[in-house]
Every structure is written in C-alpha cells, then in structure tokens.
Design brief:
- The protein is an alpha/beta fold.
- The chain is built from 14 helices and 16 strands.
- The radius of gyration is 26 Å and the shape is elongated.
C-alpha cells in the first residue's frame, strides 16, 4: 500500500500512518450532542471525517468506524457547570429529554445523508452504555484518580504526570483563565466523571456514589474502548475538542489502562462566517436546511468544504457557496456528456492521473489540490471524454459528490414544444421572439446550447 501522511495533533507533526492491523483501520469520531440542529460549522467536521474514511477505503483499507450520540451528560459549559443541554432543550420545547434526543438524532442523520456522508459501522448512544461507564469510574477510583465533592465524582488531574498531552507546548491553565471553578475542585483542570442529580427527574441512574449521570468526557472513552479496544488507530473531532474534551479522554484512558486511547488524533479547523466565528448573538449560525431553503444543493456545501484543507479555517459566504453550486452543476452536466462517449480508454493516461490523485490525497487529505487536479484533468485536451468520465468517477470515491448517480433528465413534452417553436422563429429571423422562448425554457430548468447540428437541451441542476 502507498504511504498515507496525516497530521497527528498528539505529536504536532505530519506522520506516516501505520495502522495497528495491516489492512484494517479503527476510527472513533465524536458525534453530536442531540439537543438542536447541527450548524454548518459542525457539519464541516463530519465532511472532513468522511473524506478521511473515504481516503482510507480508496487505499484498500477496511474501516471500522464508531460514532457516538451524546444524549446525556453534556452540560452547557464544557467545564461541568450549568444545565444539561438536552434537558434545557426539553424545557424549551416542552418535551421529554428522550423525545428531544431522538428527534435531533434523526435530524442529524438526515443531514449526513444529504451530504453523502458514509454511515459509521457502529452508532452508539451514551445512554446505552451507562453500566459500562459506572464500571470504568470504579476502575479509576480503585487506582486513586478520583475524589468526591458536593456535586459529583471528579478526576484528579494532578495525579497524572502527562496530563495535557494535546496542548500546545508551554500552555498552562490558570484558575478562572480558561475554566470555571466548581466549589470543592482540587485543581482547575479536574473534571466530572459522575454528576449527582438533585432535583433532576429525567436521565438519572443509580451508581455506587448515588443517583446521577455520567460526565461527557467519560462517555467517549467507554464507547471507544467497548467497540474498538485500546489503543485504536484514529480519533477525530473539531479543533475545539483539543484543549478539554480530547485531553480529558486521553487522561482517563492512561489512568485506567496505562495506554494511549488512540495513536493518531486528527482535528478540523473552524468554519467562519464573513470572517467571524459563528455565534447566536451575531445571528450568523446557519443549518443545512437554511442553505436548502435558499435553493442550494447540500452537496454544494460539501464541495465548498473540499476547497479548503481541513486544517485551515474556511470563510463561508453565500457568494462563495453560489460559486460552488455553479461548479457542481457544471460537473453534473459534464458527467452526463462524458458518459455518452464510447471511445477506447488509454489505460496509461488514466493510470497516470490516478497516481497523481493518490499522491495528493495521501498527503494529509489535500482536497484543494485534488479538486484543482480534477479540473486540470477535465480541461486536458489529450484525454478523451470517456477517459475523463472514468477518472471523475474514480476521484469521486474520495470527493463523495455522488457523480455516479447523475442521470440525464427526461425532457417534458412542453419543453420540446417550446424548443420547436423557438427554432421556427429562428428560421424566420424573429430573434426577439426566439430569445423570449429561450428565457421561458431556462425558467423551467433547462438551458439551450446552439450547435451546427442543432440545439441541445441541458438540465439546469
């Protein structure tokens, strides 16, 4: 197999990817907290993770992918203070916590399908592993890494010499600087393993320490170990997970099992909106449904994300999305045209382009360069249309733009009638009347290309 290079947050450098098992890769990706619709910044991370998975499959690996659904335990602050996000949503919408979780889980999965994101091998809900989480906390307790205060069982980070392995070099966390202090915490970086329930009526379980619910950071360690073992190959998430969530996952795994949780840690950068971070206060949070309602194909957003490297910030605007929408429509029309060509394929030419493509995507998933290569290939006059068709489908195994499913649209009889009428006016040199019919045809979703052989109708996707 050809070498794949990935930037490992753990080592802070690009490394050759070496899986634990020769032809198999085990991946864990942090899934959603299902209290609201995912916004497009969230979705960028899932697209990046999907590209990683597709690149591994393209290279011949079998991938076992686990994604969690956090349906309990994630508080409004990542530092274990405030209300549970799902219970807060339940109050807002006057539903049960379970109803909220299942509704937004369904919406999340619908979003992934619209973006052509491959489903994980295993979906696992946090609420399905409560017993496993309790047993894990018992292990940490037995090894002396826990203490109990008024609001729960906490992990003592001072007991772990290597705590903060994902942090940038020289970074320190001071009380009040990055974390909110809970009364009784020994260290600012200590985090909840089990929170006691006071007046809470939903999402509460029995434990040796009293009624309560698990901490967010504990859930992922338990679910990853249960389905992938320790260590597994790759752990992914957004860059916002580095300092707290993933740091605390690593700490628990090392404390409990004396092993690193995963060998490679990959993180995607933020998506900005008009140069600013998305925030409700700025009114610049958009969901996939917002884009669809404005007339955009969801895969145009996927194409938009492919144009930037996953480790680079990307600035979203509707103008840039429109450009991607046009590019995707052009690709769809090209794939229809190329498919018609039945020329013989020069395997050497095709092989050379595949080789270039593989080298690019294996260099830390460099999708911007891969997209550029695709358009270079499309404009290559030495390639036949049939060769371009074969290469587009090959590249799309990684891009995930669903090009193989594009089919020519049937032309309605009404459009055929209008086209015939337009040709009549053109022969009579009544150009103004012919142009009016062209405009009418375009409004109905078709464009006309006038050729020497006659007009050709194409669907406007």
């Amino acid at each position: 197999m050809r070498k794949i290079f990935l930037f490992n947050t753990l080592s802070r450098k690009k490394e050759v990817f070496l899986p634990i098992k020769k032809k198999e890769v085990r991946i864990y990706t942090c899934g959603p907290t299902v209290y609201w619709f995912p916004h497009i910044g969230n979705l960028r991370t899932y697209i990046f993770e999907d590209v990683l998975k597709r690149v591994l499959i393209y290279n011949g690996y079998k991938v076992k992918h686990v994604m969690n659904i956090t349906d309990v335990g994630h508080l409004v602050s990542d530092q274990d203070v405030g209300e549970d996000k799902i219970l807060l949503a339940a109050k807002r919408e006057k539903k049960s916590a379970k109803e909220i979780a299942r509704f937004y889980e369904k919406k999340f999965k619908e979003n992934l399908k619209k973006l052509n994101v491959l489903e994980p091998t295993v979906w696992v809900r946090a609420t399905a592993t409560i017993k496993d989480q309790v047993n894990f906390i018992k292990i940490l307790e037995k090894k002396g890494f826990t203490y109990i205060i008024e609001d729960g069982v906490y992990f003592d980070t001072s007991k772990l010499k290597k705590y903060g392995r994902l942090w940038p070099k020289g970074m320190k966390i001071l009380p009040g600087a990055r974390v909110e202090m809970v009364r009784g915490k020994k260290n600012p970086t200590d985090f909840a393993l089990w929170k006691f329930a006071k007046e809470r009526k939903e999402m509460v379980w029995q434990s040796p320490w009293g009624k309560g619910f698990p901490g967010w950071h504990t859930e992922c360690v338990v679910m990853a170990k249960k389905f992938l073992g320790i260590p597994f190959d790759i752990h992914c998430g957004g860059i916002d997970h580095i300092l707290i969530h993933h740091t605390n996952e690593i700490a628990q795994a090392e404390a409990g099992f004396s092993k690193i949780l995963a060998n490679y840690w990959l993180h995607s950068e933020f998506l900005l909106v008009e140069g600013k971070k998305m925030a409700k206060s700025l009114g610049n949070i958009f969901t996939l449904d917002d884009l669809i309602q404005k007339g955009f194909d969801p895969l145009s957003f996927r194409y938009f994300c492919l144009q930037a490297h996953y480790r680079s910030k990307i600035n979203f605007s509707f103008q840039s999305l429109k450009s991607c929408d046009i590019a995707l429509k052009n690709l769809k029309n090209l794939i229809i045209e190329f498919k018609k060509n039945k020329d013989r394929i020069n395997n050497l030419k095709v092989k050379n382009y595949k080789k270039k493509f593989l080298k690019i995507i294996n260099n830390d998933l460099d999708t911007p360069k891969a997209i550029a290569l695709m358009w270079e290939m499309i404009n290559d006059k030495l390639l036949s249309e049939r060769e371009k068709y074969v290469l587009l489908l090959d590249f799309d195994q990684v891009f995930g733009l669903n090009l193989a499913k594009i089919k020519p649209s049937k032309i309605p009889s009404q459009i055929k009638k209008l086209l015939k009428e337009r040709e009549k006016y053109r022969k009579e040199k009544k150009w103004e009347m012919a142009d009016k019919i062209r405009e009418e045809i375009e409004k109905k979703g078709f464009k006309i290309e006038d050729t020497k052989e006659g007009p050709i109708l194409k669907k406007i996707f």
